[in-house]
Amino acid sequence: MATGNDLELVHLTKRYGNTVAVADINHRFPTGAYVCLLGPSGCGKSTTLRMIAGHEEVSDGSILLGGQDISHLPPARRGTAMMFQSYALFPHLSVRDNVAFSLRMKGVDKAARHARADSMLELVDMGALADRLPAQLSGGQQQRVALARALVTDPKVLLLDEPLSALDPFLRIRMRAELKKLQRELGIPFIHVTHGQDEALALADEVVVMNNAVIEQAGPAREVWARPRTEFVARFMGGHNVIATASGKLSFRADEVRLIEPGLTDTGLPATVTAVEYQGASVAMTAALDSGEELLALLPEEAFFAAPKNPGEAVRLSWDEGRANRLQA
Amino acid sequence: MIGRRALLGWMQAAPLTLVLLCFLVAPIAMIVVVSFWGATEFSIYPAFQLDNYAFLFGSPVTYKVFLATFKYALITWALTLAIGFTVAYFLAFHVRSQTMQIALFLLCTIPFWTSNIIRMISWIPFLGRNGIANTALQNWGVTDAPLDWLLYSDFAVILAFVHLYTLFMVVPIFNTMMRIDPALLEAARDNGASGAQTLRHVILPLTKPGIMIGTIFVVTLVMGDFITVRFMSGSQKANVGRLISNDIALLQYPSAAATAVVLLATVLLIIAVLLRFVNIRKEL
After folding, report:
1. Amino acid A26: pLDDT
2. Where is the ABC transmembrane type-1 domain (chain B) (predicted)?
3. CB-nearest partner of A53 from B190, B192, B194
């Protein structure tokens, strides 16, 4: 069912000369969802976003929004709005004029556009700073202004290009909560490009993992994390171990790896501890199997320190075979 | 004791202060002093009198010549700005590869490998009565007779000025344009701005400091010039620089100094007004 703002990518391809940045991807974004495009740098996620926004030409395929092909429309006529990585606020314009910029381009008169801009600024809690210049704002405040400027156009889809990467870690966590809240209030889809899997898990209703110009896996955040389809996804999402077995590759969760009591030598696999990292609630212990494969075990902190292990010590590790996840690639 | 640090500070500042005192402050002070001196047909004598200024402000020629100088400055400024902005815009936003940008930029500076005078004089055979321009125009049938106003006219003077000084507009404007974040242009497009609107509402305001620096260059160069006006007008036109140079040729140093002081004050006033409009400090 195509409703007003369903976004769909059909055989979308982007080539730069002989290199393919985005290779024939097909995806339908769920209606009104917070979607994260996740992947390492150079995987094509930003290019995909920029093609949707209209800042990058489509080499092949199309982009459908609400059933209409928008692949060749200018950015402002697509019904999308983009929030840029560095926010791209106009340094010579006040916060209010930045937000009112698109209305000014449309020829809306000053009083009306300022009233509208002020109401957008109220939405992002920036009403009090409307007369400031962008240089007088902190990173988080600039981001809110950028958000207000994107939303003032009443977009059907909001596109965010690594919106949190310019912020310090504390602010990043606060801003992502606000983004999520705003998306829920507005009910329009947000498509958010990031290379941070924790950010994607925290925010997304749907995670789309990209690698080497294609979509590796797409689905609800819990599904992508708990049941990675490929080795790449398992490793990129983190918290998983991947081992090769006779019947193919398996992944299993690092927090389900258990340390066997010394003395019980008939269960589990022998391994040598290579690194121990204290992480607060848990301890991340890396151990090398005899086969050379490294395993990560996330052990409860109290249990670990009841019988601490040091690098170089021999241990035995086990996990529930039944809960392992078979990888397709 | 003032302290070694203070002394050290003074010593570090001393060389530059000395250079500026010797080569900037002292000569200007000298000009100001001499402008109050007296002169006869064959001698000058130290004095403190306002005769030179009285004569300068009392003569209608002064006003005419200053007006002509302003006219040259204004027209040259408008043309160099239009050309300079266009060239800089092309270099900064249309040329994609940096290598090409640098290559084209160097190309712009090639004319500066020869002297001002040579570049100026090379216009003369081109624009003259039987010069290339006139011959070509007649051969093409555009005109029947040679155009007289091509050489030794205001047209020639302004042409030479524009030719000589456009680069002084291109460089600072190009420099400021290169600092504009390309994401701003995308943001403008995303917000529905057309090319012209982006130019008007984003690029132009952000390029203002560069335009202002270029303006100061061009205006001061044109206001102080005398040789271009002399050569290209065939000594038929005058500006303040020529007024001064004529006085010097007649050894009327006090009168020349007075004119120079008035010119200096005028130019400083113009720059002061320009700086009221745009803050160029962030560019320096």
Report:
1. 93
2. 66-274
3. B190
Q: How far is B191 from chain A (nearest CA, A)?
A: 5
Number of domain units in chain B: 1
Q: Determine the structural domain holding residue B65 and report its residue range.
A: 27-283
Q: Does A86 touch chain B (CB under 8 A)?
A: yes
∠ CA(A120), CA(A126), CA(A131), 5° rounding? 95
- Put simply, the answer to whether B201 touches A81 (Cβ < 8 Å) is no
* Strand boundaries in A103-194, DSSP class E: 157-161, 190-194
Amino acid in the structure at residue B219: V
Which residue among A81, A90, A149 sits closest to B202, beta carbon to beta carbon? A90
Region B175-204 average pLDDT = 92
Q: Does A158 touch chain B (CB under 8 A)?
A: no
Instruction: Find the length of chain B.
Output: 284
> How confident is the model at residue B267, as a pLDDT?
94
CB-based contact, A101 to chain B, within 8 Å: yes
Percent with pLDDT over 70 in chain A: 98
Residue A2: per-residue pLDDT: 43
Q: Which helix (H) or strand (E) holds A317?
A: strand A314-318
Residue spans per domain, chain A = 1-79+155-238, 92-153, 240-326
Chain-chain contact of B183 with A84 (C-beta, under 8 angstroms): yes
Contact at CB, B189 and A74, closer than 8 angstroms: yes
Domain A240-326 = CATH 1.10.357.10: no
- Note the ipTM here: 0.82
| A259 vs A206, higher pLDDT | A206
List the one residue out of A329, A325, A46, A4 whose CA is nearest residue A210: A46
State residue B284's pLDDT score. Answer: 53
Please indicate, yes or no, if residue B4 is contained in any of the structural domains: no
CATH code of the domain covering residue B69 = 1.10.3720.10
Q: A21 vs A26, A45, A72, B244, CA distance in Å?
A: 14, 9, 18, 66
What is A1-79+155-238's CATH number?
A: 3.40.50.300
Q: Is residue B2 part of a domain?
A: no
